[in-house]
Amino acid sequence: MPSDPLIDQLKAALQASPTNLPLRLLLARKLMEATRKDEALALLVDLEPQALGTADATDAATLLLDGGEAGWAERVVEGCYDRGRSSARFLHVAARVRAELNDWNRAAQAWMMAREVDPALTDPALDEKLAAARPEPPQKPALRVVVGGKEGRRDVEPAPTGQTLTFADVGGYDELKKTVHRKIILPFQKPDLFQKYGKQAGGGILLYGPPGCGKTHLARATAGECGAVFMNVAIEDVLDMWQGESERKLHALFQLARDRAPAVLFIDEIEALGGRRSATIHQAAGILVSSFLSEMDGFGKSNQKVLIMGATNVPWAVDPAFRRPGRFDNVVFVPPPDRPAREAIISILLRNRPARDVDAAAVAARTSGFSGADLKHLIETAFDLVIEEAIESGGEPPLSIGHVTRVLPKIRPTTTEWLSTARNYALYSNEGGQYDDVLAFIKEHGR
Ligand SMILES: Nc1ncnc2c1ncn2[C@@H]1O[C@H](COP(=O)(O)OP(=O)(O)O)[C@@H](O)[C@H]1O
Ligand SMILES: [Mg+2]
Q: Per-residue confidence at 298, pLDDT binned at 50, 70, 90?
């Protein structure tokens, strides 16, 4: 094998900081360019699609696609697709991956959105492919991706769209799960029954609470519980769409949900639809709210097997029109996890990973105010330590409570600030008791 000084340097650098993802991706790219494909792919074996930022996911998916691993690239792309806020580059590679897998409709959709974000983007080869694709998508070829890794080779089945979660993946929040089950999942699964008793079908659920406390996670799990496709819409995409062809595209979004039904259409940062954040787009956004609501009302009339879920970190900025009957009439507070919930979340985060004697209850007791995302950050940071150790010692030590304790002082809870803002709204602007749950939480947890 020819030696390449740049590659050798990058390798040494990566040895020194093995968790540096951009560095890993750069090295993989260079190896690929040097036609050392197997080495490049081996670097990507342990990538966790869910843990990648959009930029890294874009690079990783491009590498995998160029390396002939389209199925694997798809896992990376779909793991990230749901997270909203997409860049043109990301959407472009998503379109290429889907086209490679003959998933024509969704390829075209991603490609359309990519050019929505960046109209200057071109890809004649992709255009040609899409143009040649028949309207009836051909049968997906059976895929089997073999990944060469450290521990030899293993088979990876390409995941469908993203990873399916269920309530078993949501730690704690038992009451919340019960509420969602009773008010959301049952009516969704048995609309006729509910209609018989004069209950209005349709309507949506609005989740609110501090960032990182599992709104998106819960919405995903709700989709999983319903056996529905999960569609995560970034508000930026809708606003972009608005500036483009407005209602037609908003309608297309709802239509897409209908086509893919049963589906959960999850709209994050729903407050942005109200346009209160900027006077200049206020008027346009006002129309956007009403077209959104009329789409929603339309869903209510003819049950479409589409569940609409919204989420916001700033409920006080949400247009009150959203809360009228038949719309987001279930407004649900997703609080910071209490101690038992933290314990459950930690156990979930440690599931199937090498850990020994990590007492989740003890960690939970010391992480008051931590969000689920904070806990995730804590555990990931602790694993970084373990990996460093593994490299130094050459062994494969498991995570221990000592690692967690060492990184704990570095991680700060992020829910406190949200709670104090929410407290003000709850005390001084609690029309119709809409923040009673927040007040109850603060009272119980003494903040
Ligand atoms: N109850 C929970 N159970 C398991 N994991 C959780 C829970 N809450 C949060 N998490 C973890 O924290 C991450 C961030 O949560 P997320 O749903 O994105 O928060 P939000 O949408 O409220 O900002 C999730 O990806 C998940 O890994
Ligand atoms: Mg979220």
A: confident
Q: Residue 158: pLDDT band by 50, 70, 90 thresholds?
A: very low
**CB of 373 sitting under 6 A from ligand 1:** yes
Q: List the helix and strand counts (H, then E) for the chain.
A: 20, 7
Which amino acid is present at 334? V
Q: Compute, in angstroms, the gap from residue 59 CA to the centroid of ligand 2.
A: 23
Q: Tell whether ligand 1 has an atom less than 6 A from the beta carbon of residue 249.
A: no
Residue 373 Cα to ligand 1 midpoint, Å, equals 6
What are the residues whose beta carbons fall under 8 Å from the beta carbon of 205, sequence distance 6 or more?
180, 183, 184, 307, 308, 309, 310, 328, 330, 331, 332
Class (C level, CATH) for 339-410 = mainly alpha
Strand, helix or coil at 333? strand
Tokens 């992480």 belong to 367
Strand arrangement of the beta sheet that strand 229-233 belongs to: 229-233, 263-267, 306-312, 204-208, 330-333
Interval 415-433: pLDDT, tens: 998 998 999 889 888 888 8
- Identify the weakest region by mean pLDDT among 40-44, 104-108, 130-134, 392-396: 130-134
Does the domain spanning 167-333 belong to CATH 3.40.50.300? Answer: yes
Of all residues in the chain, what percent are helix, strand and coil, respectively (each to 5)? Answer: 60, 10, 30
Distance CA 205, CA 139 (A): 36
Beta bridge partner(s), residue 307: 264
Sign of torsion, CA 104 106 107 109?
A: positive
Nearest CA to ligand 1 atom 16: 214
Domain-by-domain residue ranges, the chain?
Answer: 5-120, 167-333, 339-410, 415-445
| Angle (nearest 5°) at CA 385 between 381 and 386 | 115
CB 210 within 8 A of CB 414: yes
Nearest CA to ligand 1 atom 20: 212
pLDDT at residue 251, rounded to an integer: 80
Q: How confident is the model at residue 278 (pLDDT cuts 50, 70, 90)?
A: very low
CB 235 within 8 A of CB 267: yes
The rounded Å distance from CA 171 to ligand 1 centre is 9
CATH of domain 5-120: 1.25.40.10
* 83 in contact with ligand 1, CB cutoff 6 A: no
CA pair distance 442, 447, nearest whole angstrom? 5
User: Any idea what the Cα angle at residue 104 is, between residues 236 and 88, rounded to 5°?
Assistant: 30
- Tens-place pLDDT, residues 327-381: 888 899 999 999 999 999 999 999 989 999 899 999 999 999 999 999 999 999 9
